[in-house]
Amino acid sequence: MTKLNNLKKEVLKANILLWEWGLVVGTQGNVSGYDPASNLVVIKPSGLPYSALKIEDLVTINLEGKVVEGKRKPSVDWPHHIYIYKKIFGITGIAHTHSPFATAFATAGLPIKCLTTGQADIFGGEIPITPYVDNKEDYIGQAIVKGYRSHCPAVLLQQHGLFTFGEGPYQAVLSARFTEYFAQINLFAILLAKTFHKNLMPLSQEEIKKWYERYHGGGYGQ
To answer: Which of 13, 29, 104, 197 could potentially form a cystine with 24 if both were Cys, beta carbons 3.0 to 4.6 Å apart?
Structure first.
């Protein structure tokens, strides 16, 4: 139970970070964490304001969606979280947001092209987009898994928003913050290039690979 209690603390902190970092408005968005040892998922309750969120409000469910602990209803997105955990090995945290810059790209049906070395570092290329699906059953989870690109911790869902992943809830939220950051940079770059009639080109695959590998074990950091 100690491990599950620690996961609850991580999920609570990650959900509050969504709010503190301006990635959510109102009660939209959610974060979950997965414990592979017990096959249990801790997730934000549905419709509860972030400012009022407490650890006892979190809901623990199994991989069939049955509540095993908690008095609240789990997020309505729980089927998608569970589907992703089942299908993508190694993910133990998921965040979902409608953050404005990322969702602007999702609304336009556009991936976030890799225009900068910073995005190459984190995402290893463009942030993909998957076609719109409705929220019945686990259709969104299926779409996200289909659109997932290996080693890229983010997928846009057309006309909906963003799903991000990581080794734990914090990493998933950090990926959401990075996605919003690069979406903002890209949007401004696109507008500036159009205004000044510049030809805006993504980084080459060779350059993306070089920057990504340096950042992930190739000499970056301590």
So the answer is: 29
In the chain, which ranges are E strands? 30-35, 40-43, 59-62, 67-69, 93-97, 129-130, 154-157, 161-166
Nearest to 161 by CA among 79, 78, 100, 94: 100
Q: What is the DSSP letter of 95?
A: E
Long-range contacts of the stretch 66-72 (C-beta < 8 A, 24+) = 68/40, 70/45, 72/45, 72/46, 72/48
Q: What is the mean pLDDT of the chain?
A: 97
Domains of the chain: 2-215 (3.40.225.10)
Question: Is the model's pTM score more than 0.90?
Answer: yes
The pair of structure tokens assigned to 6 is: 């620690």
pLDDT tens profile 154-186 = 999 999 999 999 999 999 999 999 999 999 999
